[in-house]
Amino acid sequence: MNRLDDAFEALIAQHPEGDPDMVIATARQAAATSRARHRTVLALASAAAVVVVAAASAFAVAGTGEPASQIHAGPGLTATTAVTTPDTPATKGSGHAIASPAGVALRSGTDPATDLPITGEPAVAAYAVGTELVVYQGADPDPGDQAWPWPAGDIAVWSRHGTKTVAIPDGTDRAELLDAGTVDGSPKALVALYHGDGFDTSSVTLALIDLHTLSSHTVVDHPAWESGYTQARVLPDGDVIGLLTVEASSSLVRWTPGRPDAVWSTPAPDLDRTLALRGDRAVLIDTQQPGKVTTYPVDLATGALGTPATTPTTGVDGDLSCRDWYDDQALSCARPTAPAGTIGSQGTWHQLPTPDGATVTASRD
Amino acid sequence: MKRPPDRPVRPIRSVRSVRTAGSLVEDELFRSIYPALHRLAAVVCPAERDAEDLVQEALVRTLRRGPLSELDSPLAYLRRTVVNLAANERRSLGRLRRAAPRLAAVADEGEAPSYPSDVAVLLQLGPLDRAAVWLSAVEGQSAEHIGQVLGCSPEAARTRVSRAHKRLRTLLDEEGTTR
User: Fold this and answer.
1) What angle do CA B127, B133, B136 make, to 5 degrees?
2) How many C-beta neighbours within 10 Å does residue A282 have?
3) Three-state SS sequence of chain B
4) CA distance A205 to A115
5) Average pLDDT of the residues in B112-136
6) How far apart, in whole angstroms, are the C-alpha atoms of residue A336 and residue A98?
């Protein structure tokens, strides 16, 4: 036995083994108790959501002065049924994937005690599809003086059967995980693949990757000299909308897989907007002005931007990046050096129990 | 020095009385993987915590999602959960750790656990690095397996192992020169 073995054995000796039968019996009981508690919380939350939705809708109409037709109702606005059976899976949006410098976790509901650790490696993005599949990408562990982490490393798919790494095609210089969702009943990840670095040779491919088979399918491929996608989202029909930055301008573009021309393209107000999508409810978001958040509804059929609504925010300051809906009412927002949180329709900040720098995304169904 | 027990006494009799045939199979499965799981938990456990707590917590989180028998590799899955919990645990204890720069140098011998110097050096590595060194150098696991436990690709696991060994060598050298 060498010095290292001795040191480890001395360390292990500090922790005497227990009785495995006792460990599993106690764990089984704790797991059962936790599941029962979670079901109760879900039922209460669903009932409470009905009241909140009604109040929020009233505020939205009265507060913005917009015609009701411009208010994009989320897919869960009419959901009034509480979870009543023990085996009902988590309701849409009740699960969240949390990516942070501390790794990736899958959270059921809002209780951090339900967190299932997926990896302890720093991660820049994570998306849960349903409750048993998570796709994530590593973050540069040494971001230097950048406020936000830079995607680095593999894109991995976690399930209860293990973790698989997405094979990146040869010749790809950089891959970036952008979104995930269910397309035609299959879980897919949306990635951007960057190739080349010259004026004539650089290009970017948006591709959908099947999370079961890991096969990829190109959505669109086009030149990428000084351009790229800051964000993109996959729609349930397989189309993709993305914020495409070309040199000093930015556009919101909708692509259909296999069609070289965009379905529509709309100039974005400026470069610093972010995009959140939930069902058929899409908004461009501006958090650059301190103390307020402005949202622009996006008509997914035409790309037209609706009347912007500006709401003063309370309880938060500093850098914010809102790139997802947390639930039907609130945006999910990250902060570079503080826990993530949500901004509701009245602008109220609610901090979430996450590590600093975490990005929280609602589970995709 | 033996660590004082820091776990509350747990009820045993009442939960054992509800065993079913399925749970007996699961008990047997868990019994078979427990030693290897516990050893890794002891390796990655923060000094302030008990390895058994890590094992317990990992098992609770796993059972919450279904029986162990549904997993392709229960040991690998639980080991990974243990490592991730330890990494999270370490971060949450970070503030406390910063107050006491080195565990080996804690002044109050009466309250703090004391460690042989090499163990104190090991504890200066993060849980992921400790797991990487343990799995590679002691267990002799492949990069694929190490990646599975650490939640990264085999390539990233190789890098992690290499860096962890380098850090350990540096710490041992420092420790050797200050002794």
Assistant:
1) 130
2) 21
3) CCCCCCCCCCCCHHHHCCCCHHHHHHHHHHHHHHHHHHHHHHHHCCCCCCHHHHHHHHHHHHHCCCCHHHCCCHHHHHHHHHHHHHHHHHHHCHHHHHHCCCHHHCCCCCCCCCCCHHHHHHHHCCHHHHHHHHHHHHCCCCHHHHHHHHCCCHHHHHHHHHHHHHHHHHHHHHHHHHC
4) 34
5) 80
6) 14
A165-221, pLDDT tens digit by residue? Answer: 998 888 888 889 999 999 988 999 999 998 876 666 678 899 999 999 999 999 988
> Is the pLDDT assigned to residue A264 strictly greater than 80?
yes
> By the 8 A CB rule, do A99 and A124 touch?
yes
**A34 touches B at CB < 8 Å:** yes
d(CA B25, CA B31) in angstroms, rounded, equals 10
Q: Is the pTM of this model over 0.80?
A: no
- Asked if B3 and A14 count as a contact pair (C-beta separation under 8 A), the reply is yes
Place of tokens 């909308």: A241
A132 vs B38: CB contact, 8 Å cut-off? no
Check A28 against B35: CB less than 8 A apart: no
Q: How far is A174 from chain B (nearest CA, A)?
A: 16
A153 and B115: CB-CB below 8 Å?
no
Q: Is-contact A303 A254, C-beta < 8 A?
A: yes
Q: What is the 3-state secondary structure (H, E, C) of A49-72?
A: HHHHHHHHHHHHHHHHCCCHHHCC
**Helices within chain A (DSSP H only):** 3-13, 20-64
Four-point Cα dihedral A265, A266, A267, A273, nearest 10:
-110
From the list B12, B84, B123, the residue facing A120 with the nearest CB is B84
**Which among A29, A35, A120 is the nearest to B151, CB-wise?**
A120
Cα A322 from Cα A328, distance rounded (Å): 14
Measured distance between the N- and C-terminal CA atoms of chain B, rounded to whole angstroms: 21
Q: Say yes or no for a CB contact (<8 Å) between A120 and B83.
A: yes
The ipTM is: 0.76
Task: Give the other-Cβ count within 10 Å of A358's Cβ.
Answer: 25
How far away is chain A from the Cα of B120, in angstroms, using its nearest Cα? 9
Sole residue written with tokens 């109760």: A40
Tell me the CB-side half-sphere exposure of residue A42, using CA atoms within 13 A: 25
What's the average model confidence in pLDDT over A65-71?
Answer: 28
How far is it, in rounded angstroms, from Cα B47 to Cα A344?
41
